[in-house]
């Protein structure tokens, strides 16, 4: 079931493991190098928890022992106030050598999810380009729901919180990320401890998404406002691998999420029929 606290909420079909501050600015200065790396991560987690809107560009490559290799590339715009609204565009969705022509488009506004996937449209015999789901019934979408669940583990607040479980994080220098000066931190975190840092209502899904991984290596680039501009995650275990690169921007900037025109939207058939 899709929780109201969407975490890289997003949409795709049969994919895999897929976050009251200033926005980006070229005048940002690197964090002081004498500030303990672990403390920086704690401050970043506190700041991201207060962020009400952001944009993330994501590139995710995975390997699953049963399903093969997968790749997802796309963008999400997120806001939590004045109401929950998310706009996701996945340009590349490929798994096991099969891809989704045209990618995936998903919009969540209030209590409704709108999805545009050509393959799903054909599967249910829809005549409109968009399908609409009540939020509490989105599970009926089957593979689309799996994708929503898999991708949302990369929510800004959740993923920043998980890296605070690291016991070996260290600063490895300063770098510019999309015009912002940042300090680069690197480390690892045990999946079990990282999941335990999350609110209880998010732990089950996070554990399911990361269950096949052991220790996850991460690199995070944090600007002077204590907000991350870039994050990479790499993990593997018994043939399963995850390699994700996320770029964040537009913190607390207005997000204009528009639902598709009513004449372009059809209802998803009850019980998938």
Word description of this protein:
The protein is globular and about 55 Å long. The N terminus is likely disordered. About 40% of the residues are buried. Helices cover about 20% and strands about 40% of the residues. It is built from 6 helices and 13 strands. The protein is of the alpha+beta class. Strand 10 and strand 11 form a beta hairpin. It has one domain: outer membrane lipoprotein receptor (LolB), chain A (Clam), CATH 2.50.20.20. The longest helix is centred in the N-terminal third of the chain and has 13 residues. Strands 1, 2, 3, 4, 5, 6, 7, 8, 9, 10, 11, 12 and 13 form a 13-stranded mixed sheet that branches.
Strand-helix topology:
Elements: H1 37-49, E1 53-64, E2 68-79, E3 85-95, E4 98-99, E5 104-109, E6 112-116, H2 118-124, E7 130-134, H3 143-151, H4 156-163, E8 170-177, E9 180-190, H5 191-196, H6 200-210, E10 215-223, E11 228-237, E12 240-249, E13 265-267
Helix pairs in contact: 1-4
What would a concise description of this structure say?
With 273 residues, this protein is an alpha+beta fold. The chain is 20% helix and 38% strand. It contains six helices and 13 strands.
Shape category = globular
Please give the CATH class.
Answer: Mainly Beta
Report the β-strand fraction as a percent range.
Answer: 35-45%
Number of separate structural domains: 1
> Architecture, CATH level 2?
Clam
Range of helix content:
10-25%
Based on DSSP secondary structure assignment, what is the total number of beta strands? 13
Span between N and C termini?
Answer: 20 Å
- Along the chain, the helix and strand elements come as HEEEEEEHEHHEEHHEEEE
Major pleated sheet: 13 strands, mixed
Category by helix and strand content: alpha+beta
Q: If you compute it from the alpha carbons, what radius of gyration comes out, rounded to the nearest whole angstrom?
A: 18 Å
Low-confidence stretches: 1-34
Q: Number of helical runs? A: 6
Give the integer mean of the pLDDT values. Answer: 75
Indicate the CATH topology.
outer membrane lipoprotein receptor (LolB), chain A
């Amino acid at each position: 079931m899709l929780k109201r606290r969407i975490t890289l909420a997003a949409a795709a079909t049969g994919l895999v493991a897929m976050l009251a501050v200033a926005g980006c600015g070229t005048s940002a200065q690197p964090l002081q190098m004498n500030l303990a790396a672990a403390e920086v991560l704690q401050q970043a987690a506190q700041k991201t928890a207060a962020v009400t809107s952001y944009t993330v560009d994501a590139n995710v490559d995975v390997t699953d022992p049963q399903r093969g290799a997968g790749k997802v590339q796309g963008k999400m715009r997120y806001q939590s106030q004045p109401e929950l609204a998310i706009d996701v565009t996945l340009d590349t969705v490929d798994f096991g050598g099969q891809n989704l022509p045209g990618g995936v488009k998903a919009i969540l506004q209030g209590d409704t999810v709108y999805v545009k996937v050509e393959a799903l449209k054909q599967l249910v015999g829809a005549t409109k380009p968009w399908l609409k789901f009540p939020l509490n019934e989105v599970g009926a979408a089957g593979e689309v729901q799996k994708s929503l669940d898999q991708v949302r583990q990369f929510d800004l607040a959740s993923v920043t919180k998980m890296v605070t479980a690291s016991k070996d994080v260290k600063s490895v220098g300063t770098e510019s990320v999309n015009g912002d000066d940042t300090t680069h931190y690197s480390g690892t975190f045990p999946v079990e401890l990282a999941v335990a840092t999350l609110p209880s209502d998010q732990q089950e899904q996070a554990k399911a998404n990361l269950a096949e991984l052991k220790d996850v290596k991460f690199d995070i680039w944090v600007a002077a406002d204590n907000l991350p501009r870039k994050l990479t995650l790499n993990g593997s275990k018994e043939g399963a691998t995850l390699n994700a690169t996320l770029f964040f921007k537009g913190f607390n900037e207005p997000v204009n999420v528009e639902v598709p025109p009513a004449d372009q939207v059809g209802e998803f058939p009850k019980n998938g029929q």
